[in-house]
UniProtKB/TrEMBL annotation:
It holds the Pfam family YjiS-like. Residues 37-67 form the YjiS-like domain. This is Uncharacterized protein DUF1127.
């Protein structure tokens, strides 16, 4: 099986994946995930500020708690 993959990679001009490439891919994926999480947290925290007092009451959050949550730093929390 390895010989077949090696021959196939040579035939189409690609080299087989190396450990370095795999680590780089994992690092890139981790950064992408972190950025996506950041923007999701940012969006949902800002959405809290758009809710009325009645809507906040429906979900059991006080306006002061919503403001405190929206002002949190993404980096630390």
């Amino acid at each position: 099986m390895r010989a077949e993959n090696s021959l196939r990679n040579q035939a189409d001009g690609r080299s087989p994946p190396t450990a370095t490439k795999m680590v780089a891919h994992r690092c890139l994926y981790a950064w992408q995930t972190t950025i996506i999480r950041y923007f999701e947290k940012r969006r949902t925290r800002r959405d809290l500020l758009d809710l009325t007092a009645e809507q906040l009451n429906d979900i059991g959050v006080l306006p002061e708690e919503a403001r405190a949550e929206a002002s949190k730093s993404w980096f630390w929390e």
